Amino acid sequence: MGKQEILDKLKDTIIKQDINGCAASAKEALEAGILAFEAINDGLAPGMKIVGDKFEAAEIFLPQIMMSAKAMNAAMTVLAPELEKEKMGEGKGTAITYVQEGDIHDIGHRLVSTMLGASGFTIIDLGVDVPNEKVVEEVAKVKAQKIVLVGSALMTTSMLGQKDVVRLLKEEGVRDKVKIMFGGAPVTKAWIKEIGADATAENAAEAARVALEIMK
Ligand code: HCB
Fold first, then answer.
1. Of 25, 7, 12, whose CA–CA distance to 78 is shortest?
2. What Rg value do the Cα atoms of the chain yield, rounded?
3. Average pLDDT, stretch 90-107?
4. Co-location of 149 and 187 in the same domain
C-alpha cells in the first residue's frame, strides 16, 4: 500500500470510529516508514476535521464524535513514543498550552500541544477550562527565556476571554515576556490583531511552524 493510501486509511478509521482499526493503521504507517508527525498531520487531524464538520452538518451525533476521539487517542498511544524519537531538536523554548476558560474542547489543543512538543518545545499543558488569572500566574511563574503562550478556544463565547488574557498580561507587566498564539475555529487574523496577540494558525502543523517562527 502506498503512503497516501495508508494516510487515507488512517483518516477513514477516524471517520468510521474504528478504534482498533485506527491503532492498527497507525502501526502500519510506522512500519511503512511514515513519520509519526506526518501520520498525525496528514491522517488523524484531517480525519477529526471531517468528523467535526459532519457533526455541524448534523450528519453524526455526540456518541460518534466521542468514538472518533477514542480512535484518535488509540492511534496517539502508538504514535507518541515515535514522536519522541523524531523530535526536531531540543530547546526551542517553553510552550504554555491551554484551553480558554469555559471551554472544554480539547481535541485540537492536544494535537497542537503534541506537535509543539515534537518540534522541540518544552510543554506546560494547563488543560481545559483554564481561568484567565491562572494563565497569567503561570506566565509570571515560568522562568524560561523563551516562552510562547498557546491558547485554544472553540466557541465564540470562550474566544472573548483571549482578549482578557492579553489585557491581564499587560496589567501584570508580563506581556513582553511571552509571544502569544491563539487558535481554534472562531479565531481569525483580524481578531489576533484587534486583541494585540502575535499569531494564529489553522492547524497543528502550522501552529508548530508559526511558533518556531515567532520564537526566532
Ligand atoms: Co462542541 N461546539 N460544544 N463539542 N464541538 C463546536 C465547537 C461548535 C462550533 C458546534 C456548533 O454548534 N456549530 C459549537 C461552538 C459554537 C460557537 O460558539 N461558535 C459547540 C458548542 C456550542 C458546544 C457546547 C456548548 C454544546 C452544548 O453543550 N450545548 C458544548 C460546550 C461545552 C464547553 O466547552 N463548555 C460542546 C461540547 C462538545 C463535545 C464535548 C461533545 C465535543 C468536545 C470533545 C472534546 O474536545 N473532548 C465537541 C466537539 C467535538 C465539537 C466539534 C464538532 C468539533 C471540534 C473538534 O474537535 N474539531 C465542533 C464543531 C467544529 O469545529 N466543526 C463543535 C477537530 C479538531 C482537530 O479541530 O479546530 O479543535 P480544532 O483544532 C485545530 C485548529 O483549530 C488548530 O489546530 C487544531 C488541530 O488541527 N488549533 C490551534 C486549535 N487550537 C489552536 C491553538 C493555536 O494557538 C493555534 C492553532
1. 25
2. 17
3. 93
4. yes
Regarding whether 53 and 131 lie in a shared domain, the answer is: no
Q: Write out pLDDT tens, residues 160-212.
A: 999 999 999 999 999 999 999 999 999 999 999 999 999 999 999 899 999 99
The Å distance, Cα 32 to ligand 1 centre, comes to 32
The secondary structure of residue 61, as a DSSP letter, is -
Structural domain span for residue 136: 93-214
Specify the pLDDT at position 192.
98
Atom of ligand 1 nearest to the CA of 102: 35
Query: Of all helices (H) and strands (E), which one includes residue 93?
Result: strand 93-99
The domain boundary, picked from 86, 108, 131, lies at 86
Domain count of the chain?
2
Q: How many angstroms is it from 53 CA to the middle of ligand 1?
A: 10
Q: Are residues 105 and 190 in the same domain?
A: yes
